[in-house]
Amino acid sequence: MATEENQSESRLSSATSYAFPLKDIPRLSCNDRKALEMIRKSEPVILTDTNLVASALHWSLDYLADHIGDGNFTVYKSDSHKFKYYSDKKCKMVKEFRPPTVQMEMKFKDFAALLKRKQKERDCSEKIYLQQALNDSVEKTIVYDFVNFNWAWLTEQQTLNNWGPLTSNLLLVGMEGNVTPVHYDEQENFFAQIYGHKRFKLFHPDQYKNLYPYPVYHPHDRQSQVNLDCPDFDKFPNARNLTGYQGIVGPGDVLYIPMYWWHEVESLKDKGETISVNFWYMSRSVDKVEHPLSAQQKMAMTRNIEKMILQALDDPEEVPSFMQMLVLGRYT
Ligand code: OGA
Ligand code: FE
Fold first, then answer.
1. Angle at the Cα of 293 from the Cα atoms of 290 and 299, rounded to 5 degrees
2. Ligand 1 atom nearest residue 263's Cα
3. CA-closest candidate to residue 241, choices 208, 215, 279
4. Where are the alpha helices (DSSP H) in 182-318?
5. Is the CB of 278 under 6 A from ligand 1?
6. Which residue of 73, 229, 240, 292 has the lowest C-beta tally within 10 Å?
7. Which numbered atom of ligand 1 lies nearest the CA of 185?
C-alpha cells in the first residue's frame, strides 16, 4: 500500500523533475582515433562497434532462464523504482540506518517468473533488479558466449591504458523504470548493453562538491546524498551548479565509465526489461604524480584522509568537531 508520503514523493519527482544542463556523450566507432584518445584521457564515450558482447546479443530473459543453470543469483527488491546501493559491512556503523532495498538469493528461473508476473499484473508497488557477478556456476551455453566475448579488444585496451586486472563482470537484469541512483565506483568500467536500452547521466569527478557524497564510513559510501529528481537545495546548495553528460545505450553499445566518474542509470521503457554486463578493471597506480592533482586524484586523497582520521579517532561522531578544529580559523 502506498503511503501518503511516497505518493507525494512520486508526484513531485514526475512533476518537478529538475533539469540541469547535460551534454551528449559522444557516440563513436572504436576504430576512431578520437575514441581511443578519450579513453586514454579518462573521458566517457559510447563505442558502437566493439563487438564486445556480439556473442551474447541473442540473450533474453527467457534464453537466460533456459540456459544459465541452477546457481543462486542476488536479486534486490525495492519499494520504489530506485535501487540505492549500500554496503552490508558498513550497516552497523550507522545505528538508525534502514536499508532501502532487500537482498534475496534466487534461481534465475524464479527471478524471471517473478519479473514476468510483476509486468503482467502491472504491479508498480515493488520492483526487482538482478545484479550478480558472472561466475563458474553458469551452464556451458552461457560460458560459450562468455568465452566468445571480444577479449582481444579488451586486452588491447587494458594494455594501452595501463589498467590493472579485470576484477569482475556484473550481470544486470532490470525492470523498465529501475534507477541506480548517482554514485561513483573505484574501478574502470566498460559497460556493455545487451538487451533493451539504458539512459546514463554522467558527472565529472570535479562535480564532487555539487554532489555531496556520504561519509566513507556510511553504508551509502560512494553514493551522492542529492536526489537528482528533486534536489534539496536548502541542504545541498551547490547542487544548483551541477552540470554533466547524458547518453542512451542499446544492444551492442559499450559505454566507457572512467573511474570516479559519477553515474546514474535508468532502464528505459522499451522491451520490458534490460540486460547488461559490465567489465570492471583495477586502475594502475601512477608512479610519478604531477601537479596540480586531477579531480580523480583529489577524490582518492580525500577518501584516504577521511579513512585515516576515522581509524585514528575510532568514532565517527568525533570526526566533525575534529575536522572543524583542524580547519576553522586556521585555513579559513
Ligand atoms: C555500473 C553501474 C548500474 C546499472 O555498472 O557501475 O552502476 O543500473 N550500473 O546498470
Ligand atoms: Fe556503478
1. 135
2. 7
3. 208
4. 208-211, 295-313
5. yes
6. 292
7. 6
Cα 190–221–196 angle (5° rounding)? 35
The residue-averaged pLDDT of 296-323 equals 98
Q: Residues near 236 by Cβ (< 8 Å), separated by ≥ 6? A: 212, 225, 226
Q: Is the distance from the beta carbon of residue 191 to the nearest atom of ligand 1 less than 6 Å? A: yes
Q: What is the mean pLDDT of residues 65-72?
A: 98
| CATH code 3.10.100.10 for 4-281 | no
Mutate to test the pocket of ligand 1, among 83, 183, 276 (most ligand atoms within 8 A of CB): 276
pTM of the model: 0.94
Cβ–ligand 1 contact at 180 (below 6 Å): yes
pLDDT, tens digit, for every residue of 106-158? Answer: 999 999 999 999 999 876 789 999 999 999 999 999 999 999 999 999 999 99
Q: What is the domain partition of the chain in residue ranges? A: 4-281, 295-327
Question: What is the pLDDT at residue 29?
Answer: 98
